[in-house]
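Materials and Methods. Structural model of Sigma-54 dependent transcriptional regulator. The 522-residue sequence of Sigma-54 dependent transcriptional regulator from Aquincola tertiaricarbonis was retrieved and submitted for structure prediction as follows.
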Amino acid sequence: MTTTSPFSLLVVDDEPDLRTLYELTLVREGYDVETAGSVEDALARLASRRYSAVITDMRLPDGSGLDLLRHIEQQGRPEKAIVITAYGSAENAVEALKSGAYDYLTKPVDLRQFRAVVGSALGRSGQPLPTVVPAQLPSALAQGLPAAPAAAAPARSRSGEPPAAAAAPTPVAPTRAALARLVGHSGAMQQVRALIEKVSRSMAPVLVQGESGTGKELVASAIHKVSSRGSGPFIAVNCGAIPENLLEAEFFGYRKGAFTGAAEDREGFFQAAHGGTLFLDEIGDLPLSMQSKLLRVIQERAVRPVGAVNEAQVNVRIVSATHKDLQAEVQAGRFRQDLFYRLNVIQIRVPPLRERLDDLRPISAAVLERIARDAGVAPAPRLSDDAFAHLARYAFPGNVRELENLLQRAVAMSGGDVIGRDDLGLPDAAFGDTQYADDLAALPPAEPRPAPADAPLPTDLAAYLDDVERDILARALERHRYNRTAAGASLGLSLRQMRYRMARLGVHAGAGSGEAAADGDD
Ligand SMILES: Nc1ncnc2c1ncn2[C@@H]1O[C@H](COP(=O)(O)OP(=O)(O)OP(=O)(O)O)[C@@H](O)[C@H]1O
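The predicted structure was written out as tokens:
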């Protein structure tokens, strides 16, 4: 056997013909290959040297491929393991992934897939797909539908991530940094981080469960960054936000002329995520018709764009997330059992913030640091003891996202270095078991507003009020020639408060206003 390849593989199968087929296929790819016909034989070879990867049949005469997997795991060996299972035995595949396999293949083995999976395990993504930047679907344009998620998906990341572009993979981010973004040292968060590190070594699908705003997307993005595909694309898709009639074209792409308005070939989410990770958020919202198509792609690892004749192989790791109880959805007949089984190989539960109050202080501190940094202010404000105690009593139905919004507003209200209890703006009605509605009714009436009684009510009050505030700040700035100190003073705000509010609402000090000079008291 030559030793010119940087990759050495051990193939374990008791059928001599198959062994030879795998060996020849891999040698042709330029790998060094050794073979074994039994568990005992394989263990003897493993005892004498290291390999880049082990490819093993599940059923062996003196045991199972799982025995080899467990050996590799227990000894902390570096080999990636790929398991070949009988067709249709999803249980075996799931078992293999849970035992630490990098990936699995089903018999009869498709050799293209075989080469792709081995290449992926070794960090070589195989044949690159032709890269076409996802764009808005013509049908969506024609119907005046919201921007197609293919374009919106990477940009929708709310975790402060730079948008993941399919055409320009992001550089490898340090593993520690990805995990450190998940602030918190509660037992639950430590467990989440440990699980992320563990699952990042395999291709196993992960289902992230948790209430809205708990950090599921942050977890998915950390899984991606920590894994060997971290330098590939991370494509986040909100399954609930895509109109049903566009799902197939969005997920799998389409060919020119496939439907009215399809003026050119477009790739879908799967092609865009090739070599990286596809994050399927709100997977529980996917209609049943699309669930079966998704299952097929996951099993076949190939997609056929709408209007195309041939399928294209894709190498994509799936991480999905839901705030729903998917098991209950399965029981109610709204979610396919087989898809659930495929997606739920490894589950990571992100608990609600109220169940890990130990994390409240460090997350608040991290959020305040970020707010101050964005506003160009130092030092970052901190919570008074009283304010923190008040916050700790709150239930945070919107979890970390709500905490972020609350602190943004509190900083803008306080304007000083210390955020007091009143700056939090949490009405007493928001606490305890009291009937929220009754308590609100008991509050003194708000000051009359000059809005006409028949004016339509806003559907998003927070966004509406932000718009009002943005408009007032912009007008005050204009009136005071973009001097923030003067504009702020005219509204009863300190310069610091003004800066926070402007940063939060994205209001700029005006082109060429020479803002630093204008606010000499900064
Ligand atoms: N542990 C944490 N440390 C720091 N920031 C966090 C943490 N968890 C969540 N966040 C922040 O909270 C916000 C919401 O997180 P994320 O979008 O990941 O939640 P989600 O569970 O995916 O929400 P949804 O269910 O609504 O999609 C983001 O800005 C994220 O950066």
